[in-house]
Amino acid sequence: MKVLISGGGTGGHIYPALALIRHLEKEHEAEFLYVGTEKGLEASIVPKAGIKFKSVHITGFRRKLSAENVKTVLRFLKAVKTARKYIEEFKPDIVIGTGGYVCGPVVYAASKAGVPTIIHEQNSVPGLTNKFLARYVDKIAVSFNEAENYFPKEKVVFTGNPRASEAAETKGSGGALKAVGLSNELPTVLIVGGSRGARPINEAVMSAFPSWDGQDFQVVYVTGEVHYEEIAADLKEKETEKLKAVPYIDDMPSLLKEVNLVVARAGATTLAELTALGLPSILVPSPYVTNNHQFKNAKALVDKGAAVLIEENSLNAESLTQAIQQGLTAENEQLMKKKALEAGVPESAALLTKEIKKLLN
Ligand SMILES: CC(=O)N[C@H]1[C@@H](OP(=O)(O)OP(=O)(O)OC[C@H]2O[C@@H](n3ccc(=O)[nH]c3=O)[C@H](O)[C@@H]2O)O[C@H](CO)[C@@H](O)[C@@H]1O
């Protein structure tokens, strides 16, 4: 089987694609080609994962009318042409898009070439690209029931997010905390602002952490690559035995297996991992995303009792510290753990694979 996958920009679109590739590889003789952009995180993550990578040049549409959008249309048409060339050369049996604007021209070109197509939507509210592609593709796999209403009924199928399967199946390295310089003795909080980091979360952490000295928990603090230098300079000797800052974690599922509580943005792929593993969380949705979809992602978990919400405008040293202390009490930790597990879809990769097979038959 030959599979062309496209998706990117941020980790939330890339890791589901990689998880699906890993699952398909286990079950089938398969060859893969990943198409992304040179500027997205996929340009480094995908080749590192040993998967053949090619790129198209494309940018996202601005919401407001602008001359830049005219250029984007021209780039889109050019990217469709490039994608068509990749499709003619690789001859995929199926083309799968996992979101981010890069999969627009790729999946569109595939559909026009008569190749079977599936898009995977991670969020509770779909992004522009998947809404655009909905009319051209054969199947639309969603991860939240809330997303179903935005798409043609006959094409939609609920599969969850395949990264959940990868997280649930991981055995873990057993040394993820040790690798960042922490022990396995204390309750551990992971703080992470999505795949690119989040300045407001960083600001709250930097103002709160001096008061965490006497607490009986430790912290892995993932700043995001672009913020790391500045934070490392601010932290200097203040980094303690109980707080370690790192720019990025390559093997997140292994780390997740060794922590008790997660403070995070509410990116859909992160939520799929947390629920697959049954991890309690404090979610600070980004208000800067299309249709406020992170808030709706978070709400789906908070309403089930699987997570606690702090809106960004209420995030400060006090609210963060208090939420962490409460999240770590035995009773809350157990309850959120149970509710998170109930919300998880660890069988997602198999569900999506089933849909792929149906389409190929
Ligand atoms: C600003 C923005 O548009 N964000 C979107 C983007 O977020 P973003 O890329 O931040 O997405 P998620 O939080 O969903 O996923 C992040 C992924 O990166 C991994 N990770 C993160 C940090 C790290 O150090 N190492 C690592 O491997 C996580 O384990 C996870 O697999 O895609 C998500 C999924 O469509 C959306 O819900 C988000 O709203």
UniProtKB/TrEMBL annotation:
Checking CDD domains in the record gives: GT28_MurG
Q: Which Pfam families match?
A: Glyco_tran_28_C, Glyco_transf_28
Question: What biological-process GO terms show up in the record?
Answer: carbohydrate metabolic process; cell division; cell wall organization; peptidoglycan biosynthetic process; regulation of cell shape
User: Which annotated residues bind UDP-N-acetyl-alpha-D-glucosamine?
Assistant: 10-12, 123, 195, 249, 294
Q: What is its main location?
A: membrane
Q: Its pathway?
A: Cell wall biogenesis; peptidoglycan biosynthesis
The reaction(s) catalysed by this protein are: di-trans,octa-cis-undecaprenyl diphospho-N-acetyl-alpha-D-muramoyl-L-alanyl-D-glutamyl-meso-2,6-diaminopimeloyl-D-alanyl-D-alanine + UDP-N-acetyl-alpha-D-glucosamine = di-trans,octa-cis-undecaprenyl diphospho-[N-acetyl-alpha-D-glucosaminyl-(1->4)]-N-acetyl-alpha-D-muramoyl-L-alanyl-D-glutamyl-meso-2,6-diaminopimeloyl-D-alanyl-D-alanine + UDP + H(+)
**Domain Glycosyltransferase family 28 N-terminal, residue spans:** 3-141
Q: Where in the cell is it found?
A: Cell membrane
Write the Enzyme Commission number(s) for this entry.
2.4.1.227
InterPro entries in UniProt = GlcNAc_MurG (IPR006009), Glyco_trans_28_C (IPR007235), GlycoTrans_28_N (IPR004276)
Q: Which UniProt keywords apply?
A: Cell cycle, Cell division, Cell membrane, Cell shape, Cell wall biogenesis/degradation, Glycosyltransferase, Membrane, Peptidoglycan synthesis, Transferase
Task: Give every Glycosyl transferase family 28 C-terminal domain span.
Answer: 188-345
Q: Does the keyword Nucleotide-binding apply?
A: no
Would the keyword Coiled coil turn up in this protein's UniProt record? no
Q: Which GO terms describe its cellular component?
A: plasma membrane
What GO molecular function annotations does the UniProt record carry, in alphabetical order? UDP-N-acetyl-D-glucosamine:N-acetylmuramoyl-L-alanyl-D-glutamyl-meso-2,6-diaminopimelyl-D-alanyl-D-alanine-diphosphoundecaprenol 4-beta-N-acetylglucosaminlytransferase activity; undecaprenyldiphospho-muramoylpentapeptide beta-N-acetylglucosaminyltransferase activity
Q: Which SUPFAM superfamilies match?
A: UDP-Glycosyltransferase/glycogen phosphorylase
Q: Which family does it belong to?
A: Belongs to the glycosyltransferase 28 family. MurG subfamily.
| Database matches in PANTHER family | GLYCOSYLTRANSFERASE, UDP-N-ACETYLGLUCOSAMINE--N-ACETYLMURAMYL-(PENTAPEPTIDE) PYROPHOSPHORYL-UNDECAPRENOL N-ACETYLGLUCOSAMINE TRANSFERASE 1
Please explain the role this protein plays, according to its UniProt record.
Answer: Cell wall formation. Catalyzes the transfer of a GlcNAc subunit on undecaprenyl-pyrophosphoryl-MurNAc-pentapeptide (lipid intermediate I) to form undecaprenyl-pyrophosphoryl-MurNAc-(pentapeptide)GlcNAc (lipid intermediate II).
Which HAMAP family does this chain map to?
A: MurG
Q: What is this protein called?
A: UDP-N-acetylglucosamine--N-acetylmuramyl-(pentapeptide) pyrophosphoryl-undecaprenol N-acetylglucosamine transferase
Organism for this UniProt entry? Alkalicoccus saliphilus
The top of its lineage is:
Bacteria, Bacillati, Bacillota, Bacilli, Bacillales
